UniProtKB/TrEMBL annotation:
<feature type="transmembrane region" description="Helical">
    <location>
        <begin position="6"/>
        <end position="36"/>
    </location>
</feature>
<dbReference type="InterPro" id="IPR051598">
    <property type="entry name" value="TSUP/Inactive_protease-like"/>
</dbReference>
<feature type="transmembrane region" description="Helical">
    <location>
        <begin position="80"/>
        <end position="100"/>
    </location>
</feature>
<dbReference type="GO" id="GO:0005886">
    <property type="term" value="C:plasma membrane"/>
</dbReference>
<keyword id="KW-0812">Transmembrane</keyword>
<protein>
    <recommendedName>
        <fullName>Probable membrane transporter protein</fullName>
    </recommendedName>
</protein>
<feature type="transmembrane region" description="Helical">
    <location>
        <begin position="223"/>
        <end position="243"/>
    </location>
</feature>
<dbReference type="Pfam" id="PF01925">
    <property type="entry name" value="TauE"/>
</dbReference>
<keyword id="KW-1003">Cell membrane</keyword>
<keyword id="KW-1133">Transmembrane helix</keyword>
<dbReference type="InterPro" id="IPR002781">
    <property type="entry name" value="TM_pro_TauE-like"/>
</dbReference>
<keyword id="KW-0472">Membrane</keyword>
<feature type="transmembrane region" description="Helical">
    <location>
        <begin position="107"/>
        <end position="126"/>
    </location>
</feature>
<feature type="transmembrane region" description="Helical">
    <location>
        <begin position="158"/>
        <end position="188"/>
    </location>
</feature>
<feature type="transmembrane region" description="Helical">
    <location>
        <begin position="48"/>
        <end position="68"/>
    </location>
</feature>
<comment type="similarity">
    <text>Belongs to the 4-toluene sulfonate uptake permease (TSUP) (TC 2.A.102) family.</text>
</comment>
<feature type="transmembrane region" description="Helical">
    <location>
        <begin position="255"/>
        <end position="272"/>
    </location>
</feature>
Length: 273
C-alpha cells in the first residue's frame, strides 16, 4: 500500500512541479510529513522529508528538462548563470535546515509566497531589469510557435543574488525553488512563461543535485522512500510538460498565481498550528 501511495505522491508532485516550474517539493514534503504523522511510513522529521524530497525533485527536474529541451523551451545559458547562485544557496540552505525553527519560518515564508502571487497580478505594469549597455546585463529575444516575439533580459548580479535566495529556500524546504524563481523571471526579467517554467526546471535539476549531496552527507535521505517516489515523479514530470506546452502563456501565469496563493496559505496554516 505504501508503494502505491508514494507513487501517487511522486506523480502529483511531478505533474504540478513541471507544469509550473516549481520542482514538485511543494507536494512531496507536506505529503511525507502528513504520512509520517499517521505512522504510514515510519518516523518522519522535517529534515528527512526535505532531503528525501530533493532526490525526487532531481527526477522531476531531469525528466522535465529533457522534455522541454526537445521542444526548444530551455534557456540553457540563463539556467547555468542562475545556478551560479542557486548551487551555493542550496548547499547553505541544506546546512541551515538542521538548525531552523521550521514552524516560525513556515509562517513568514507563506506570507511571502502569497505576496508574490499578488505581485503576479501586476505583471503587465512591471518592466524587465535590463541595461543593454552594461557588461553585466543580458538581453534576449524569443519567438514562440505562434510567431509572437518576446524580449527579456536581466542584470546578471541581481539574477545571481535572486537565484542564491531561491537555492537557499530550496535547501531548507526541499521545494525545488521554482515558487520563487518563476515569479522572479516573469516579474523582473519578463521571461515568456513557457521559457520561465522550462528554464526554472533546468536550474532546479542542478541545484537540487547539489542540495541532495549536502543532505546525503547529513544523513537526511530515506532511500527506500526515494525509490518509491522517483518513478511517479519522473512520469508525472512528462505529463506536466505535455500539459504545459498545450496551454496559452496567460493560462500558465494564472495557474501559477492560484497555486502560489494556495501553497502560501497552507504554509501559514502550518506555521500557526
Amino acid at each position: 500500500m505504501e508503494w502505491f501511495i508514494l507513487f501517487i505522491v511522486g506523480l502529483v508532485g511531478g505533474i504540478i512541479g513541471s507544469l509550473m516550474g516549481l520542482g514538485g517539493g511543494v507536494i512531496v514534503v507536506p505529503a511525507l510529513l502528513y504520512l509520517g504523522s499517521y505512522g504510514l511510513i515510519g518516523d518522519m522529521t522535517p529534515q528527512l522529508a526535505v532531503g528525501t524530497s530533493l532526490v525526487a525533485v532531481i527526477a522531476t527536474g531531469l525528466s522535465s528538462t529533457l522534455s522541454y529541451y526537445k521542444k526548444g523551451n530551455v534557456d540553457i545559458k540563463s539556467g547555468l548563470l542562475f545556478f551560479i547562485g542557486s548551487g551555493p544557496g542550496g548547499v547553505f540552505g541544506s546546512w541551515v535546515n538542521g538548525y531552523l525553527n521550521a514552524t516560525t519560518f513556515s509562517l513568514y515564508f507563506g506570507l511571502f509566497i502569497i505576496l508574490i502571487s499578488f505581485l503576479l497580478f501586476m505583471q503587465n505594469r512591471l518592466s524587465p531589469i535590463t541595461r543593454s549597455s552594461n557588461s553585466n546585463s543580458l538581453k534576449k529575444v524569443y519567438i514562440d510557435r505562434d510567431g509572437t516575439t518576446y524580449e527579456y533580459g536581466y542584470h546578471l548580479p541581481l539574477a545571481v543574488f535572486i537565484s542564491f535566495v531561491v537555492g537557499f529556500t530550496s535547501g531548507i524546504f526541499g521545494i525545488g525553488g521554482g515558487a520563487l524563481m518563476v515569479p522572479a523571471m516573469l516579474l523582473l526579467f519578463r521571461f515568456p512563461p513557457h521559457i520561465a517554467v522550462a528554464t526554472s526546471m533546468f536550474m532546479i535539476l542542478l541545484s537540487s543535485f547539489t542540495s541532495s549531496l549536502t543532505h546525503l552527507f547529513l544523513g537526511n535521505i530515506d532511500w527506500l522512500l526515494t525509490i518509491m517516489l522517483v518513478p511517479g515523479a519522473y512520469l508525472g514530470a512528462k505529463i506536466g510538460v505535455y500539459i504545459n506546452t498545450r496551454l496559452k502563456p496567460v493560462t500558465v501565469v494564472r495557474l501559477l498565481r492560484l497555486f502560489l496563493f494556495i501553497f502560501g496559505l497552507r504554509m501559514i496554516i502550518d506555521g500557526l498550528l
